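lol forgot to send this yesterday, sorry. struct tokens for the thing we talked abt
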């Protein structure tokens, strides 16, 4: 996985399978000749020439309701996209990283990635017309890789971008990304939504960012923090990372959804931080071999292997695994509760729990878990605590 600021270096290998398509052509001499109508050997009677056929010209299809041509989208939003640069305070070091951002409101708040600013030095924001201004960090949330900065540009340059509903997008819908790849300001690319609900490792953390949008619109180092737009010109995500084995884009990009930003950003502006709800368990998704070992009919649910002492799950009496067995040639801890549903929603894997917490829950809320213990199902209600800080064990 590679973040998209200009200083990112970490990559993850990806295997790519290429499929070559062969197109066969038939030589013209092999095309059979069809005789005209009439008996064989007898010339066909002459036919009256057919009048020329007049084909009506269909009008050019208009964009579907709510869609805007890419060129118009760019013209509408270009004034709200900025370049974000971090300059190292140590003159002996090279300049820090750079990325992108977009204007959130008329008070000068700009949304970008936490890993772009990252507290490394002085921040400058450059608008599309080339004017640059100093900016300060208002708040950061490393668990979603979201940051809010504020530029002292004054209201004249501020063009807040409209925020759309990322929960309404579907796989296959067109999207556009705008940012500053390799410092090339105001670059636009387009593609489609490849998948929804991905998990993305949070920077410098063992936790994951849930509900991530996967796209195939080309993004590269410098795109981090830039907006991902739907066909109506609304921001439905923030471009954040790519998966690659080369350090460059190979067709798999990731964006933090707008619904996450709309939940996190107001708290960053008002409090400087966002408190994430936390259950306090670790474990493993149920897979077919494990389901057989546990005597389960379906390979779904989340097996709890560990429970944080004093955490919400511990207070509610949830149990972790107690026995280690070999499953498919690998040691697996079993004996803990299996989470089958959260607030009435079926749990296929941990992603379902994390997405529900991210979208619907806050610290202090209660949730109901349907768990399987010793062959019997039971309901357990617990109150969500605040997630521990960076460096804590990866308990969900």
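and heres what i got for the seq, position by position
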């Amino acid at each position: 996985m590679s973040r998209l600021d200009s200083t990112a270096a970490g990559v993850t290998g990806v295997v790519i399978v290429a499929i070559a398509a062969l197109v066969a052509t038939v030589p013209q001499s092999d095309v059979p000749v069809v005789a005209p109508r009439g008996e064989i050997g007898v010339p066909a009677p002459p036919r009256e020439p057919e009048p020329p056929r007049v084909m009506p010209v269909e009008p050019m299809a208009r964009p579907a309701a709510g869609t805007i041509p890419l060129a118009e989208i760019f013209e509408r939003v270009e004034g709200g996209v900025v370049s974000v640069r971090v300059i190292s305070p140590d003159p002996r070091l090279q300049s820090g990283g750079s990325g992108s951002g977009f204007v959130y409101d008329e008070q000068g708040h700009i949304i970008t990635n936490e890993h772009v600013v990252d507290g490394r030095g002085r921040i400058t924001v450059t608008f599309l017309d080339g004017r640059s201004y100093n900016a300060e960090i208002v708040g950061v949330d490393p668990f979603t890789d979201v940051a809010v900065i504020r530029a002292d540009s004054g209201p004249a340059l501020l063009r807040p971008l409209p925020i759309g509903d990322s929960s309404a997008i579907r796989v296959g819908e067109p999207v556009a990304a705008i940012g500053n790849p390799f410092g090339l300001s105001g670059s636009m690319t387009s593609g489609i939504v490849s998948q929804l609900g991905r998990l993305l490792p949070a920077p410098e953390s063992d936790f994951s960012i849930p509900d991530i949008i996967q796209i195939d619109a080309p993004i590269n180092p410098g795109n981090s923090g830039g907006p991902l737009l739907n066909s109506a010109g609304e921001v439905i995500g923030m471009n954040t990372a790519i998966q690659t084995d080369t350090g460059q884009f190979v067709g798999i990009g990731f964006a933090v959804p707008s619904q996450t930003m709309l939940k996190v950003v107001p708290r960053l502006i008002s409090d400087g931080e966002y408190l994430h709800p936390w259950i306090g368990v670790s474990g493993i998704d149920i897979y077919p071999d494990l389901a057989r070992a546990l005597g389960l009919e379906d390979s779904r649910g989340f097996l709890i292997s560990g429970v944080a002492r004093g955490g919400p799950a511990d207070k509610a009496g949830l149990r972790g695994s107690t026995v280690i067995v070999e499953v498919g040639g690998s040691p697996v801890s079993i004996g803990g509760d299996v989470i089958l549903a959260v607030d009435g929603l079926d749990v296929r894997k941990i992603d379902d729990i994390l997405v529900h917490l991210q979208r619907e829950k806050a610290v202090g809320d209660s949730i109901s878990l349907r768990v399987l213990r010793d062959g019997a199902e039971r309901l357990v209600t617990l109150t969500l605590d605040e997630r521990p800080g960076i460096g804590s064990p990866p308990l969900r």
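Residues 21 and 251 are 19 Å apart (CA to CA). anyway ping me if u want another try
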